[in-house]
Design a protein that fits this description.
This protein is α/β, with parallel strands linked by helices and about 240 residues long. The chain has a single domain (about 5-205), classed as Rossmann fold, CATH 3.40.50. Helices cover about 35% and strands about 20% of the residues. The protein has seven helices and seven strands. Strands 3-2-1-4-5-7-6 form a seven-stranded mixed sheet, with helices on both faces. Helix 3 (about 105-115) links the parallel strand 4 and strand 5.
């Protein structure tokens, strides 16, 4: 179960609106696949229309078993531990703050790797576990016995996980509560790690193929040593002529 209602409610606050603006701008710039390709967002936000035109991207699907996405998108129900898609059938996957709450993170990432095509795209949004404000929000909601119980992952740790699944990080960005900073990576350069509220990662699924080499059946020593013995011979000829 994806307990995300508290997160969605927080995005309607003043600080949440600032972060929403920055994340929507990042997503809009990062969705560079063809409008005929398949895009899957796992975890509804309700403001998908701020970063994607569903009338243009006909194969944009939002999978969530609790919440509703914007009306123009196609909503699916399913479990994150076994995504209802064929292997290598999706061109782009978006995980908006899903790993912050999902208890089976490794299984989810393995499933994402399975359904993405070779050279497909993966976009992940996450909260910074070192940010003081985010941790205070966690404590405040936990005292009220709400559903806000995230197990946050740092951007560097997530990048390490992705590398084990043959994902190459193409772009990383950090966001804070400065509404003027909406360009990817700008907040990350200007602010220290503790001030970054959330981050985004865009990665590419790489597929490496081994090229078999024919075994060497015979070692031709004479050919290999020809250049080695050629130098002293020429030196001897040079000395004789002097």
């Amino acid at each position: 179960m994806m307990h995300r209602k508290v997160l969605i409610d927080w995005f309607s606050t003043s600080k949440g609106q600032v972060l929403q603006q920055q994340e929507a701008a990042f997503l809009e710039r990062s969705i560079t696949v063809s409008c005929k390709q398949v895009i899957v967002q796992i975890g509804a936000l309700g403001w998908e229309n701020k970063f994607i035109d569903c009338s243009l991207y006909k194969q944009f699907y939002v999978m969530d078993d609790e919440l509703w996405s914007c009306p123009a998108s196609k909503l699916l129900r399913g479990a994150t531990a076994a995504l209802p898609f064929k292997s290598a059938s999706v061109d782009m996957v978006i995980l908006p703050h899903l790993l912050d709450f999902d208890q089976q993170k490794h299984q989810l990432l393995r499933e994402v790797e399975r359904i993405i095509k070779p050279e497909g795209k993966l976009i992940i949004l996450g909260f910074n576990p070192w940010n003081i404000y985010i941790n205070l929000q966690y404590v405040r909601h936990r005292e009220k016995d709400s559903l806000w119980h995230p197990s946050l992952i740092s951007r560097t740790r997530l990048a390490d996980w992705l590398s084990l699944l043959n994902f190459e990080v193409e772009l990383a960005a950090g966001f804070d509560f400065d509404a003027m900073r909406t360009s990817a990576g700008h907040a990350e350069r200007r602010k220290k790690q503790l001030a970054t509220v959330a981050y985004a990662i865009k990665a590419i699924k790489r597929c490496y193929h081994l090229i078999p080499l024919a075994p060497v059946t015979e070692y031709q020593a004479g050919v290999a040593m020809a250049k080695l013995i050629d130098i002293p011979v020429r030196l001897n000829e040079y000395n004789e002529t002097r």
